[in-house]
């Protein structure tokens, strides 16, 4: 009977303020059909499955949970923190409030997450090539450095800009297994027995 190695699907929760482009990022990454004319209804909740090529075989799987954006002092429900292996925090560099909200979301994650080793990355979703009039990029980079979070700048209209953060996240969630030293030891034992 032929069997294929079934890889475990990592669960990723996508978080951020309303209207920062969370759904647009995922739709562009998976389907590649997002244009400037694409219209989205506000997300309530959605699940995407992405098969990511990390250069290893087989392709690794990510189950991405797209959530409704939050506003004000709202928090994500506690049950959202029970399952994720990773969190992707998204903000809009043109809106300083969206970065400030990430600090609240991050503290909420630290308070409630079930898996202590959960990976967190931050995506700055740049909507255009217009010079930043919102957030100084140093503020975002300094906050990420203090929190020990990897920061990426992406553009939802440019699919290629999304590859690096998601491949890097997938590699962190599915690390290469190191070879056991027991096999080398058993070969040495067999060699000494035959001598």
TrEMBL record:
CDD domains: Ras_like_GTPase. It comes from Megaselia scalaris (Humpbacked fly). NCBIfam families: small_GTP. Belongs to the small GTPase superfamily. Ras family. KappaB-Ras subfamily. One of its GO terms (biological process) is negative regulation of canonical NF-kappaB signal transduction. This is NF-kappa-B inhibitor-interacting Ras-like protein. The keyword Nucleus does not apply. SUPFAM superfamilies: P-loop containing nucleoside triphosphate hydrolases (SSF52540). It holds the Pfam family Ras. Keywords: GTP-binding, Nucleotide-binding. GO terms for molecular function: GTP binding; GTPase activating protein binding; GTPase activity. InterPro entries: KBRS, P-loop_NTPase, Small_GTP-bd, Small_GTPase.
């Amino acid at each position: 009977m032929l069997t294929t190695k079934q890889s475990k699907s990592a669960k990723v929760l996508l978080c951020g303020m309303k209207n920062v482009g969370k759904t647009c990022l995922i739709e562009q990454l998976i389907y590649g059909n997002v244009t400037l004319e694409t219209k989205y209804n506000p997300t309530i909740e959605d699940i995407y499955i992405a098969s990511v090529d990390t250069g290893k075989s087989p392709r690794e799987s990510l189950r991405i949970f797209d959530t409704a954006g939050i506003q004000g002092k709202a928090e994500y429900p506690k049950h959202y923190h029970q399952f994720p292996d990773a969190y992707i925090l998204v903000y809009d560099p043109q809106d300083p409030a969206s970065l400030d909200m990430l600090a609240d979301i991050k503290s909420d994650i630290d308070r409630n997450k079930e898996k202590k080793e959960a990976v967190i990355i931050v995506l700055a979703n740049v909507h255009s090539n217009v010079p930043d009039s919102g957030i100084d990029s140093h503020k975002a980079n300094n906050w990420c450095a203090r929190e020990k979070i990897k920061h990426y700048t992406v553009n939802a209209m440019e699919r290629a800009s999304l590859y690096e953060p998601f491949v890097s996240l997938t590699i962190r969630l599915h690390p290469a297994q190191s070879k056991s030293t027991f096999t080398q030891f058993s070969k040495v034992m067999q060699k000494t027995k035959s001598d």
